[in-house]
Amino acid sequence: MFDVDVYLHKLGHTGSREPSLALLNELQKRHLTAIPFDNALNADAERGFDVLLEVEIDDDAVFKAVVEGGRGGVCYELNGLFRRLLTELGFDVRILAAAVIQVNGAYGPELEHIFNCVELGGERYLVDVGLAGPSYLEPLRLTDEVQEQYGCQYRLVEEDGYHVLQRRAKGGEWSASYRFKDQYRRISDWRELVPDIAEFPLEQVLIGTRIHSRAFDNGQMVLIGKRYLRVVDGVEEIKVLTSPSAFKQVVRQILTPDA
């Protein structure tokens, strides 16, 4: 059963539970550090876009598997659980959806990615613990100002009616992560998009590719296929893991935070 005490223990939080920006920042980062993104159960290419429609989760079952059982999860599982936790703690949480940038530079289908928005103290914050990465480790204020976290910069730019989230590592150029409309969503919205999603070219998204990622105190590890990205204080290092032993070591390091 979903249990706030067990969840917070998993995240290592022992302080105040009063809704605040400090708590929100801490919980998002702790979540990304403690619970990895892992699409191993959802990377079957034969299932096609079915994996994009399974956004309505059984909180208790996913809680048992992820928080108690120790496995990772994907966006609708991780952000769904986190949305429940924040709601239980008294935060005002809404649902947002995004199209993620693909390897060919195009955006994926609408509502491909589900994440959260928290309204707090007259501001709105993007809250996301379910993006493979590289991603923002703490919530981002919904503003056009440049925001910096752990050596990386983030900004939101307007483009064709969308907010485009862009990221820049140290010494790098701005690049898009995903785009979204400033429109709160309902879980039922995903089922209404079945025809649109079915028509989207499957080869343009990363379905069928294993993706694992996890944050640490000042950065993040992201493994897409055999391409390994490690970010430390905003500095990126990219390797292609051709050695089976090196590949297994990185997977183990990402999926077992206490190893």
Automatic annotation (TrEMBL):
InterPro entries in the cross-refs: Arylamine_N-AcTrfase, Arylamine_NAT_domain_sf, Papain-like_cys_pep_sf
Organism superkingdom: Bacteria
Family classification: Belongs to the arylamine N-acetyltransferase family.
Name the record gives this protein: Arylamine N-acetyltransferase
Species of the source: Streptomyces thinghirensis
